[in-house]
Amino acid sequence: QDGGWLSSHFLSLSTESTFSRKKSPLTMAVRAQFENNNDIGVFAKLTSGYCLVPVGASENFYSIFEGELSDKIPVIHSSIAGCRIVGRLCAGNRNGLLVPSTTTDQELQHLRNSLPDKVKVQRVEERLSALGNVIACNDYVAIVHPDLDRETEEILIDTLNVEVFRQTVADQALVGSYCVFSNQGGLVHPRTSIQEQDELSSLLQVPLVAGTVNRGSEVIGAGLVVNDWSAFCGMDTTSTELSVIESVFKLHDAQPMAVAAAMRPAMIDSLS
User: Fold this and answer.
1) What pLDDT is attached to residue 255?
2) Please, are residues 173 and 195 in contact by the beta-carbon 8 Å criterion?
3) How are beta strands 135-137 and 141-144 bridged, if at all?
4) Closest Cα to residue 46, out of 109, 139, 145, 113?
5) Radius of gyration for the alpha carbons in the chain, expressed in angstroms and rounded
6) 8-state DSSP, 128
């Protein structure tokens, strides 16, 4: 009898979490690969206003993004400077998009036609032309490579409508490669000191956690893309890394979190 009660109790728990999950926009990070490559942040750019994906990818790759996002934001197939590494070449948020000077007129026109009208698209002359590696931003704040041009900084302020800070992350100047943050939270290089995390967190006004993606990769920006309600990471990302991502970016519903919190002590007991 006890066994029957337990199984029916857990069945009702799992059914509840399934139904609550269906109602919510997205409550977990989704794993994806681009042509057997786990560095999806190299190939895709995700904001709360739009998502850029490379042209010529597999239907499976597109369907992962479109299945989660297309009822809320446009998923735009694009190239930049003839390259498919759109995630590393551009920087943007829901207010705007910066692309390098090597972007062709045709690509620029395609982006302007496809993006929502309120999103400003701006081409910039910048020596550090992989803008996604040297700029990390959400809708309010950006941190940039210490050597970024002053002119690019001005364009960044005007186009993305953000406050800009010149920073490093764990002594790495490529801030866009080693941290990712949304308006909810952020993930930074695993060797970022507590003091530096606190400093960055006060600048960005979001909670930060030091961690990894893709089974220990320090290059957070390459393995992860996030916005305020969704996250996509490489297929190698472990369940522990996923739970950290879901927690810091506040992707979970309250109910599944409550179920997980209730079950965690029992799981730890059974493992110890």
Assistant:
1) 33
2) no
3) antiparallel
4) 139
5) 20
6) S
* Separation of CA 195 from chain center: 24
Position 266 scores a pLDDT of: 46
Beta strand 186-188 with 208-210 is parallel
Encoded amino acid at 263, one letter = M
Identify the residue whose tokens are 């062709």.
104
Alpha carbon separation from 210 to 27, 73, 100, 248, 265 (Å, rounded): 21, 29, 30, 10, 24
pLDDT along the chain (272 residues), means of 10: 46 36 55 94 97 93 93 95 96 97 97 96 95 97 96 96 96 96 96 96 96 96 95 96 94 48 47 48
Amino acid at 268: I
Query: How far are the Cα atoms of 138, 214, 240, 259 from residue 243, in angstroms, in the given order?
Result: 21, 13, 5, 14
Three-state DSSP at 265 gives helix
Q: CA 219 to CA 179: how far, in whole Å?
A: 8
DSSP state of 48: S
Q: What is the pTM of this model?
A: 0.82
67's tokens: 């299945």
Backbone torsions φ then ψ of 180, nearest 5 degrees: -135, 130
Cα(195)–Cα(221) distance, rounded to whole angstroms?
21
C-alpha distance across the termini of the chain, in Å: 28
Is beta strand 45-46 parallel, antiparallel or unpaired with respect to 231-234? unpaired
Q: Which residues contact 96 (CB under 8 A, 6 or more apart)?
A: 119, 120, 121, 122, 159, 160, 161
Q: What is the pLDDT of residue 27?
A: 52
- The answer to whether the beta carbons of residues 191 and 217 sit under 8 Å apart is no
